[in-house]
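Thread: quick sanity check before group meeting

JM: Hey all, I'm pulling together slides for Thursday and realized we never actually wrote out the predicted structure for the chain we discussed last week. Dropping the sequence here so it's in one place. If anyone has concerns about the input, flag it before I start.
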Amino acid sequence: MTPPEAPSPPAAGAAGRGFSLRAEAGARRLVLGGRIDTEAAAELWPRLMEQAAGAPSVIDIAGVEALDTTGATLLVSAEGASPGNRIEGARPQVAAVLDRVRTALAAPRPKPVAGLPTLARIGRATVEAGRGALDALAFLGELVVTLLGTLLRPGRLRFREVLRHLDEAGTRAFPLAVLLGTLLGVILAFQSAIPLRRFGAEIFVPNLVGISLLRELGPLMAGVILAGRTGSAYAAELGTMSVNEEVAALRIMGIDPMALLVLPRVLAGLLVMPVLSLMLTLAGLAGMTAIMGLLGFPLTTVTNQLAATLKMTDLLGGLVKAAVFGLAIAAIGCRAGLGAGRGPRAVGDAATAAVVGGIVAIVVLDGIFAVAYERLGL
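JM (edit): ok, ran it. Output follows.
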């Protein structure tokens, strides 16, 4: 008779739980006992599967008092780990659980329902869009409350920070606005003169370009500049502070991040956008005037056409639109920065969200303003 192998030490856990290995007449016998539940199966699984995958063995579960589906899955898996493995000594209630698990594992897997992944993605996107809208509404409400509180206590506002952001968002963007406005005026003048020349109506180019710049293109292109330069910068700055947990530290110290970080940036965006829009519009008119001079129209003719066409409501409407654009771009950039997640891509994702969100916002707002101005007769 082959001498018995030394029994394996029982697995750590509750008393009576574990397994041992014996050899009787050349046969390997894995003896288990106690209660094999989910916790016990997690502890026993690596060791039992390692022993069961060796030579054919008899899995003796006469000492197993209770078994759940996880434990039964362990025993069935150990039985199938080697072709000669078999389970012996199961009590009636334990054998019933094993039979149910064998039947469940042998049953064919259900086929995936066609269209369900697409439906799940649509539902997930809808839920995420709803959560994003609620977060945006909450951020807007918090910003309004902070602004009203600052009106009651102006000392909360750091005017030095407002001036710094005015310089970064406005003064340093003036050369780009002038360059873009000039090129825009030149392009519009050339492209407008080509079709109007067929009808001898080139003199109306200043009317077309002036209306386009004052009411639409000036505020819109200034908004694109602000979203690309300032909105992304706001998101990157605040996103870095969020990743480094500086914003959380401010809250712990009792300092409101909305008043300290967001409000100066939003006010800077609100104040600087009308100026940027006006500079871009004037640069565009200057570029258009230069092209009209090349086409043979003197400065007096161009100014007379502009004076006869443009009204003060056109200028004020464009400036109001630009101010709303600046407010939206700055708020979206700050919200993207404060909502940045964790990890190396968080700041980049926040900056991208700020630029995309800002551009989409100004296009949507421009459409709303177009409808409103048409209804109001402006």
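AS: nice. Residues 146-376 form one domain. The chain has two domains: 18-106, 146-376.
JM: adding both to the slides.
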